[in-house]
User: What shape does this take?
Amino acid sequence: MSDILVRIKRAIISGHYVFSKKARIEMENNKIIEMDVIESILNAVAIYKKIRSQSVYRKNAKEFLYIILSTNLDGLPIYSKGKLVKEHGKDVYYFLISSKKSV
Assistant: This one.
């Protein structure tokens, strides 16, 4: 398991995560709850893809987004995308773009 995935999981277990408004809208549209997404991240064995952020709001020139495809505890496949940042010396995972049922 990658160091980044371990850091993401530890941030989530510690409660250091935030869902963007867009992610929450997509969750509502797909009828999944926050716990579904959390469970899928904790069940993940690998990061599916790492991409460079194209956002004009990024803080660093080399900000990366991590795409994770995994299931919740009921076996429902979940697709999530977010970034891992340091805030006040702690890792925080931001669900930015989407959290939805994987098809």
Summary: The chain has three helices and five strands. The first strand starts at residue 17 and ends at 19.
